[in-house]
# Entry
Amino acid sequence: MRESIFRRFFVSVLAAMTVSWCAAGEETVETVLARAENAYAASNGISSQVYQRQVWVPLREMPGGGPSRFGPPTSYRVLTLRKRKPDDWYVASWSFTVSMNRPMGPVGPAVPAPVPRASGYVLSKSGAAGVGKMSSFGRSNQPVVQNSLTDDEFSQTLRSRLLDAQAGFLAFSPLLDAPAGGGDTAYFGLQSPRLVGEETWNNHVSYRVDGANITGGQTIVWIDKESGLIVRTLAQQGRPAGMFSVMSETIYTTTLGTKLSAADFIHQPPSDETLTSSVQLTEGQMGFGSVADLAQYAGGSGEGQTGGSRSSTPSTAVSNVPEQQALSTEQMEGIIFIEGDEGTATGFMTQIKGVDFVVTNQHVLGENKKITLKNLHGEVVPVLQIFGAVGSDIAIMRIAKGQGTLKIAEDVLKSVKIGDKIVVVGNRLGGGVATQTSGQVLGVGPTRIEVNANFEPGNSGSPIFSTGNNEVVGVATYAETRKIAVEDGAGYSGRSSGTSSKVEKRWFGYRLDSITKWEAINMERWHAQSARIEEFRDMSEALVAVIRMKFTTAAENKRLAPLIADLDARIEQRRGNRAAIADDMKSFFYTVRSLAEAGIRDFEAGDYYDYYRTCLYWENSIPMQVDYRKAIVEVLKKYEANSTAYVSRMRSGGGN
# Structure
């Protein structure tokens, strides 16, 4: 999806203009969506209760005209979300599945399966300096598993959980400064949206907006006319085919401007009573109607109605069918899906100096200890040898025989110019289908190319294909975000909220024609180096926990655990002798600081592939990890020099 920077910049202007346009009867899809998006993004506090069900809607009668022996299961998700600016989060989500079984022998009436047990997760974070936490709970009486997350890990986990490709909660995308899908506009990630008109749902008048989602299926969004909030969505998973259409229906009950306290963000999984009661709710209690009512939408026509009247002045209808495929059938044969133990990505087959290779990103290798390559026929493509580009996040994997006719541009500067149209084709958001995201070239550099095609996780390694000369001009690699200060002006409420920030997002790919040197990669050595970086990074996070006086968290590190245990014993022996405790703290910080400095020397002396020394990703970059550790050492030095002040902080309740 292409997300216009200018659209983001002026979103509040459009929202402010909505009030006058509504009065004049000139509502458009842009003003409806802009107003809704701004309502979420501008709110200081938000509380939402969400119910979602995924159902298999029959498209036609069963063979023989009768019911099937086993009915398809229905999956349910319950989600509680609380968000307070600037960075307080609480998200609890759990799911369960209900199967409708029929007895063997003659077909009888459907009977519900035994009451299921819910499973899910809790994500929480309190304050910009707070530690993100995640807990998972299973279907059996297993203990709750809790993990601490860095800021980046928390943001990535939050995004993946709320905006997953199959059944995401698209209403929350403005809270994450992220679109939930793709298309001509970034509003809630809808592709080719069109304003159908007004409908009455749940006794409230709502705008209905139809569009497409990243799976190619239809998405319908109902936006309350008075509040500007999304109250219901209906998303079809892919194009309807076969006997059933898989549809996700989501119902939101959301309150903005909620006064939330610190207690609302305590990391606490839902009680067993809450889980038990939720799985016993009827569909009516959740707010859902009959599954049969969804059949009118299952064919993908988008013309089904839930009641109420349409607006007399709906905007011009725009087709929600994705634009024509840019790659030929032969070129599509070259697309590769990469499946790993930690995620999915994309690659493509091509020839380099007459040898068949699959091209992808090196960070794809770094994130997955085991990968499998498959073509669009589902056939596994064996890898013979792997090479990494020196100075670029590009990997090539030699294969026995390639497919497809994708050709790499010999000189990108001669092949494309700024403004040329391109497409990015790949496994966007891990949906398991090759999707096409369109855009234009925004800039060309010595090693990279910038485009405005909104590629997402799963697109790593996708070809950036020039439609003008039918050549691959880059490899989709990463997105970069930065906050820019903008004047919000009058928001939905009509009150000025002053200056705030919006996120500008940019998309980059690496050029293949500028690579001059490759190094052979041994995957066993590659992963050993990755593990060493991860160990160094984990030690740094444990040191940060010491600085924050989170000793319980710090003691989870095996290097620090004995030092903290010894410190605890010494403090216990001092029986409140503040001067003696300060001396013990000084000695403790000296030891910890020396350990941190020694770790830097050992870490830098290691043997690493070029990727780990030159990559742009904080978690894998040796220089960035070293700089981070050095900054930690400087803080430890200050604590060592002023241990008395640290003891005072501990006495005031700063530690754990």
Summary: The chain has a mean pLDDT of 77.
